[in-house]
Amino acid sequence: MVEIDPATRLWLLDTDPALRWQVERDVLDLPEERWQATRRRVKSEGWGARLLALQDDDGQWAGGAFFPADMDEARFQTEGQPWTATTWSLNALREWGVDAGALHGTADRLAANSRWEYEGLPYWGGEVDCCINSWTLSNGLWLGADVDGIIDWFLEHQMEDGGWNCAWVEGSTRGSFHSTLNVLKGLLDHAVVTGDDERVRAARRAGEEYLLARRLHRRLSTGETVAPWAFTALYPFRAYYNVLNALDHFRAAALHDRRPPDPRLGEAVAHVRRARRPDGRWTTEGRHRGEEWFPIDAPKGEASPWLTLIALRVLRWWDAAGGATR
Protein backbone atom coordinates (compact mmCIF):
# COMPACT_ATOMS: atom_id res chain seq x y z
CA MET A 1 0.00 0.00 0.00
CA VAL A 2 1.29 3.44 -0.94
CA GLU A 3 2.52 5.32 2.15
CA ILE A 4 1.69 8.92 3.08
CA ASP A 5 4.18 10.76 5.23
CA PRO A 6 2.95 13.00 8.09
CA ALA A 7 4.02 16.22 6.34
CA THR A 8 2.03 15.38 3.20
CA ARG A 9 -0.95 14.37 5.32
CA LEU A 10 -0.98 17.75 7.08
CA TRP A 11 -0.40 19.58 3.80
CA LEU A 12 -3.42 17.88 2.21
CA LEU A 13 -5.61 18.63 5.21
CA ASP A 14 -4.61 22.30 5.17
CA THR A 15 -6.78 22.94 2.10
CA ASP A 16 -10.22 24.16 1.09
CA PRO A 17 -13.14 22.01 2.33
CA ALA A 18 -13.89 21.08 -1.32
CA LEU A 19 -10.64 19.16 -1.43
CA ARG A 20 -10.23 18.31 2.25
CA TRP A 21 -13.32 16.13 2.57
CA GLN A 22 -12.12 13.96 -0.31
CA VAL A 23 -8.71 13.61 1.35
CA GLU A 24 -10.44 12.54 4.56
CA ARG A 25 -12.57 9.97 2.73
CA ASP A 26 -10.33 8.62 -0.03
CA VAL A 27 -6.81 8.93 1.36
CA LEU A 28 -7.04 8.92 5.15
CA ASP A 29 -10.07 6.61 5.57
CA LEU A 30 -11.54 8.81 8.29
CA PRO A 31 -15.01 7.98 9.66
CA GLU A 32 -17.92 9.01 7.43
CA GLU A 33 -19.29 11.45 9.99
CA ARG A 34 -15.96 13.29 9.84
CA TRP A 35 -15.71 13.71 6.07
CA GLN A 36 -19.42 14.36 5.68
CA ALA A 37 -19.15 17.21 8.19
CA THR A 38 -16.31 18.71 6.15
CA ARG A 39 -18.26 18.23 2.94
CA ARG A 40 -21.24 20.15 4.34
CA ARG A 41 -18.96 23.15 4.80
CA VAL A 42 -18.24 23.46 1.05
CA LYS A 43 -21.44 25.40 0.36
CA SER A 44 -20.69 28.00 3.02
CA GLU A 45 -16.89 28.30 3.03
CA GLY A 46 -14.06 28.80 0.58
CA TRP A 47 -14.35 28.05 -3.11
CA GLY A 48 -17.86 26.63 -2.93
CA ALA A 49 -19.30 29.68 -1.21
CA ARG A 50 -17.42 32.02 -3.58
CA LEU A 51 -18.73 30.31 -6.69
CA LEU A 52 -22.30 30.05 -5.42
CA ALA A 53 -22.24 33.80 -4.76
CA LEU A 54 -21.35 34.43 -8.41
CA GLN A 55 -24.55 32.87 -9.74
CA ASP A 56 -26.79 35.21 -11.74
CA ASP A 57 -30.42 35.79 -10.78
CA ASP A 58 -31.56 33.82 -13.83
CA GLY A 59 -29.68 30.72 -12.61
CA GLN A 60 -26.70 31.07 -14.94
CA TRP A 61 -23.09 32.06 -14.41
CA ALA A 62 -21.46 34.73 -16.59
CA GLY A 63 -24.72 35.04 -18.51
CA GLY A 64 -24.23 32.00 -20.72
CA ALA A 65 -24.59 28.22 -21.02
CA PHE A 66 -21.12 27.22 -22.24
CA PHE A 67 -19.54 30.61 -22.96
CA PRO A 68 -19.88 33.93 -21.09
CA ALA A 69 -22.46 36.30 -22.52
CA ASP A 70 -19.73 38.74 -23.60
CA MET A 71 -17.73 36.08 -25.45
CA ASP A 72 -16.66 36.76 -29.05
CA GLU A 73 -14.44 34.97 -31.56
CA ALA A 74 -11.52 37.37 -31.18
CA ARG A 75 -11.46 36.87 -27.43
CA PHE A 76 -11.64 33.10 -27.87
CA GLN A 77 -8.71 33.10 -30.26
CA THR A 78 -6.48 35.28 -28.08
CA GLU A 79 -7.43 34.09 -24.58
CA GLY A 80 -8.72 30.55 -25.14
CA GLN A 81 -11.79 28.82 -23.76
CA PRO A 82 -13.18 30.68 -20.74
CA TRP A 83 -14.21 28.55 -17.76
CA THR A 84 -16.71 30.88 -16.11
CA ALA A 85 -20.06 30.10 -17.77
CA THR A 86 -22.86 27.95 -16.36
CA THR A 87 -21.72 24.47 -17.38
CA TRP A 88 -18.20 24.92 -16.04
CA SER A 89 -19.45 26.44 -12.80
CA LEU A 90 -21.92 23.62 -12.23
CA ASN A 91 -19.20 21.07 -12.99
CA ALA A 92 -16.98 22.57 -10.34
CA LEU A 93 -19.65 22.74 -7.65
CA ARG A 94 -20.72 19.16 -8.34
CA GLU A 95 -17.16 17.85 -8.30
CA TRP A 96 -16.50 19.72 -5.06
CA GLY A 97 -19.39 17.86 -3.44
CA VAL A 98 -21.84 20.73 -2.96
CA ASP A 99 -25.25 19.45 -1.91
CA ALA A 100 -27.87 20.05 -4.60
CA GLY A 101 -30.05 21.74 -2.01
CA ALA A 102 -27.66 24.69 -2.02
CA LEU A 103 -28.78 25.35 -5.62
CA HIS A 104 -32.51 25.12 -4.92
CA GLY A 105 -34.49 26.26 -7.96
CA THR A 106 -31.47 26.31 -10.27
CA ALA A 107 -32.71 23.48 -12.49
CA ASP A 108 -36.01 25.30 -13.12
CA ARG A 109 -34.34 28.65 -13.68
CA LEU A 110 -31.96 27.17 -16.23
CA ALA A 111 -34.84 25.42 -17.98
CA ALA A 112 -36.59 28.77 -18.27
CA ASN A 113 -33.65 31.06 -19.02
CA SER A 114 -30.64 29.23 -20.42
CA ARG A 115 -30.09 28.22 -24.03
CA TRP A 116 -27.09 26.66 -25.69
CA GLU A 117 -25.04 28.86 -27.92
CA TYR A 118 -25.56 26.17 -30.56
CA GLU A 119 -28.90 26.96 -32.24
CA GLY A 120 -30.45 28.19 -29.00
CA LEU A 121 -31.38 24.69 -27.85
CA PRO A 122 -32.92 24.29 -24.35
CA TYR A 123 -30.30 23.78 -21.65
CA TRP A 124 -31.37 20.44 -20.19
CA GLY A 125 -31.91 18.88 -23.61
CA GLY A 126 -28.21 19.09 -24.43
CA GLU A 127 -26.87 19.84 -27.90
CA VAL A 128 -24.55 18.12 -30.44
CA ASP A 129 -21.28 17.98 -28.49
CA CYS A 130 -20.61 14.70 -26.66
CA CYS A 131 -18.68 16.31 -23.83
CA ILE A 132 -21.25 19.07 -23.29
CA ASN A 133 -24.02 16.48 -23.22
CA SER A 134 -22.13 14.39 -20.68
CA TRP A 135 -21.74 17.32 -18.30
CA THR A 136 -25.39 18.24 -18.83
CA LEU A 137 -26.37 14.67 -17.96
CA SER A 138 -24.27 14.66 -14.77
CA ASN A 139 -25.40 18.13 -13.68
CA GLY A 140 -29.03 17.35 -14.45
CA LEU A 141 -28.94 14.14 -12.43
CA TRP A 142 -27.38 16.07 -9.55
CA LEU A 143 -29.95 18.89 -9.63
CA GLY A 144 -32.99 16.75 -10.44
CA ALA A 145 -33.61 17.94 -14.00
CA ASP A 146 -35.14 15.74 -16.69
CA VAL A 147 -32.15 14.61 -18.75
CA ASP A 148 -33.32 11.14 -19.80
CA GLY A 149 -33.26 12.09 -23.48
CA ILE A 150 -29.50 12.55 -23.35
CA ILE A 151 -29.05 8.85 -22.59
CA ASP A 152 -30.81 7.92 -25.82
CA TRP A 153 -28.63 10.46 -27.65
CA PHE A 154 -25.46 8.80 -26.36
CA LEU A 155 -26.60 5.34 -27.40
CA GLU A 156 -27.39 6.65 -30.88
CA HIS A 157 -24.01 8.38 -31.25
CA GLN A 158 -21.64 5.69 -30.01
CA MET A 159 -19.06 4.77 -32.66
CA GLU A 160 -18.50 1.24 -33.94
CA ASP A 161 -15.17 1.14 -32.08
CA GLY A 162 -17.02 1.73 -28.78
CA GLY A 163 -15.93 5.33 -28.31
CA TRP A 164 -17.49 8.71 -28.86
CA ASN A 165 -16.19 11.77 -30.67
CA CYS A 166 -17.41 15.36 -30.51
CA ALA A 167 -16.21 15.67 -34.11
CA TRP A 168 -18.97 13.37 -35.33
CA VAL A 169 -20.71 16.48 -36.64
CA GLU A 170 -17.72 16.95 -38.95
CA GLY A 171 -17.92 13.39 -40.21
CA SER A 172 -15.61 11.55 -37.80
CA THR A 173 -16.43 7.86 -37.42
CA ARG A 174 -13.77 6.96 -34.84
CA GLY A 175 -13.79 7.51 -31.11
CA SER A 176 -11.52 9.99 -29.32
CA PHE A 177 -9.81 9.67 -25.95
CA HIS A 178 -11.16 13.03 -24.72
CA SER A 179 -14.77 12.57 -25.77
CA THR A 180 -14.97 8.94 -24.72
CA LEU A 181 -13.73 9.59 -21.19
CA ASN A 182 -16.09 12.51 -20.69
CA VAL A 183 -19.07 10.46 -21.87
CA LEU A 184 -18.08 7.55 -19.63
CA LYS A 185 -18.15 9.83 -16.60
CA GLY A 186 -21.70 10.89 -17.40
CA LEU A 187 -22.86 7.32 -17.96
CA LEU A 188 -21.31 6.27 -14.65
CA ASP A 189 -23.11 9.10 -12.86
CA HIS A 190 -26.33 7.85 -14.47
CA ALA A 191 -25.67 4.33 -13.16
CA VAL A 192 -24.93 5.60 -9.65
CA VAL A 193 -28.04 7.79 -9.48
CA THR A 194 -30.62 5.70 -11.35
CA GLY A 195 -29.29 2.14 -11.31
CA ASP A 196 -27.63 0.02 -13.97
CA ASP A 197 -29.90 -0.07 -16.99
CA GLU A 198 -28.65 -2.99 -19.10
CA ARG A 199 -28.33 -1.10 -22.38
CA VAL A 200 -26.57 1.84 -20.72
CA ARG A 201 -24.21 -0.50 -18.89
CA ALA A 202 -23.37 -2.23 -22.18
CA ALA A 203 -22.58 1.12 -23.82
CA ARG A 204 -20.39 2.13 -20.87
CA ARG A 205 -18.50 -1.16 -20.90
CA ALA A 206 -17.87 -0.80 -24.65
CA GLY A 207 -16.55 2.73 -24.10
CA GLU A 208 -14.30 1.55 -21.30
CA GLU A 209 -13.02 -1.23 -23.54
CA TYR A 210 -12.11 1.42 -26.13
CA LEU A 211 -9.70 2.98 -23.62
CA LEU A 212 -8.52 -0.27 -22.07
CA ALA A 213 -7.60 -1.76 -25.43
CA ARG A 214 -5.34 1.25 -25.91
CA ARG A 215 -3.84 0.98 -22.40
CA LEU A 216 -5.23 4.50 -21.76
CA HIS A 217 -2.51 6.13 -23.86
CA ARG A 218 -1.58 4.09 -26.94
CA ARG A 219 -2.77 4.09 -30.54
CA LEU A 220 -4.47 0.82 -31.34
CA SER A 221 -2.88 0.74 -34.80
CA THR A 222 0.78 1.30 -33.86
CA GLY A 223 1.02 0.95 -30.11
CA GLU A 224 2.67 4.36 -29.86
CA THR A 225 1.62 6.92 -27.25
CA VAL A 226 -1.21 8.91 -28.78
CA ALA A 227 0.23 12.35 -27.90
CA PRO A 228 2.10 14.17 -25.09
CA TRP A 229 -1.21 15.37 -23.67
CA ALA A 230 -1.90 11.83 -22.46
CA PHE A 231 0.62 12.42 -19.67
CA THR A 232 0.11 16.17 -19.08
CA ALA A 233 -0.75 16.69 -15.42
CA LEU A 234 -3.10 19.67 -14.98
CA TYR A 235 -6.02 20.24 -12.64
CA PRO A 236 -8.88 21.03 -13.06
CA PHE A 237 -9.06 18.48 -15.86
CA ARG A 238 -11.75 20.54 -17.65
CA ALA A 239 -12.53 18.86 -21.00
CA TYR A 240 -9.11 17.34 -21.41
CA TYR A 241 -7.84 13.80 -21.25
CA ASN A 242 -4.85 12.49 -19.37
CA VAL A 243 -4.11 9.09 -17.89
CA LEU A 244 -4.65 10.22 -14.29
CA ASN A 245 -8.08 11.56 -15.22
CA ALA A 246 -8.89 8.24 -16.89
CA LEU A 247 -7.57 6.17 -13.98
CA ASP A 248 -9.74 8.12 -11.56
CA HIS A 249 -12.78 7.18 -13.67
CA PHE A 250 -11.79 3.50 -13.80
CA ARG A 251 -11.34 3.50 -10.05
CA ALA A 252 -14.84 4.92 -9.53
CA ALA A 253 -16.34 2.54 -12.10
CA ALA A 254 -14.66 -0.52 -10.59
CA LEU A 255 -15.87 0.39 -7.11
CA HIS A 256 -19.41 0.90 -8.40
CA ASP A 257 -19.36 -2.34 -10.40
CA ARG A 258 -17.57 -4.23 -7.61
CA ARG A 259 -14.92 -5.40 -10.04
CA PRO A 260 -11.15 -5.65 -9.59
CA PRO A 261 -8.84 -3.34 -11.54
CA ASP A 262 -8.28 -4.35 -15.15
CA PRO A 263 -4.62 -5.42 -15.65
CA ARG A 264 -4.43 -3.25 -18.77
CA LEU A 265 -4.41 -0.18 -16.53
CA GLY A 266 -0.98 -1.18 -15.25
CA GLU A 267 1.10 0.93 -17.62
CA ALA A 268 -0.81 4.08 -16.75
CA VAL A 269 -0.61 3.30 -13.03
CA ALA A 270 3.15 2.83 -13.33
CA HIS A 271 3.45 6.25 -14.99
CA VAL A 272 1.53 7.89 -12.15
CA ARG A 273 3.72 6.15 -9.58
CA ARG A 274 6.91 7.30 -11.32
CA ALA A 275 5.68 10.91 -11.38
CA ARG A 276 5.61 11.08 -7.58
CA ARG A 277 8.17 13.47 -6.14
CA PRO A 278 10.61 12.44 -3.40
CA ASP A 279 8.45 14.39 -0.93
CA GLY A 280 5.45 12.19 -1.76
CA ARG A 281 3.57 14.77 -3.86
CA TRP A 282 2.76 15.36 -7.51
CA THR A 283 3.66 18.48 -9.52
CA THR A 284 1.28 20.43 -11.72
CA GLU A 285 2.36 21.46 -15.19
CA GLY A 286 0.28 24.63 -15.14
CA ARG A 287 -3.29 25.59 -16.01
CA HIS A 288 -5.37 25.40 -19.15
CA ARG A 289 -5.61 28.68 -21.03
CA GLY A 290 -8.71 30.76 -20.47
CA GLU A 291 -10.42 32.97 -17.93
CA GLU A 292 -11.48 31.38 -14.65
CA TRP A 293 -13.31 32.78 -11.65
CA PHE A 294 -10.37 32.08 -9.35
CA PRO A 295 -7.51 29.54 -9.23
CA ILE A 296 -7.97 26.39 -7.17
CA ASP A 297 -4.60 24.73 -7.66
CA ALA A 298 -0.90 25.51 -7.39
CA PRO A 299 1.08 27.42 -10.04
CA LYS A 300 3.09 25.56 -12.67
CA GLY A 301 6.01 23.59 -11.26
CA GLU A 302 4.68 23.44 -7.70
CA ALA A 303 3.18 20.54 -5.79
CA SER A 304 -0.53 20.17 -6.52
CA PRO A 305 -2.86 19.14 -3.68
CA TRP A 306 -5.52 18.12 -6.22
CA LEU A 307 -3.23 15.93 -8.31
CA THR A 308 -1.76 14.45 -5.15
CA LEU A 309 -5.21 13.58 -3.82
CA ILE A 310 -6.25 11.92 -7.07
CA ALA A 311 -2.98 10.09 -7.60
CA LEU A 312 -2.97 8.76 -4.04
CA ARG A 313 -6.51 7.46 -4.19
CA VAL A 314 -5.81 5.76 -7.52
CA LEU A 315 -2.64 4.10 -6.21
CA ARG A 316 -4.28 3.08 -2.93
CA TRP A 317 -7.15 1.45 -4.84
CA TRP A 318 -4.80 -0.31 -7.24
CA ASP A 319 -2.50 -1.59 -4.52
CA ALA A 320 -5.30 -2.66 -2.20
CA ALA A 321 -6.91 -4.69 -4.98
CA GLY A 322 -3.64 -6.42 -5.81
CA GLY A 323 -3.17 -4.51 -9.04
CA ALA A 324 0.51 -3.96 -8.36
CA THR A 325 1.19 -7.66 -8.78
CA ARG A 326 -0.74 -8.09 -12.02
Automatic annotation (TrEMBL):
The lineage of its organism: Bacteria, Bacillati, Actinomycetota, Actinomycetes, Propionibacteriales. SUPFAM superfamilies: Terpenoid cyclases/Protein prenyltransferases (SSF48239). This is Squalene cyclase.
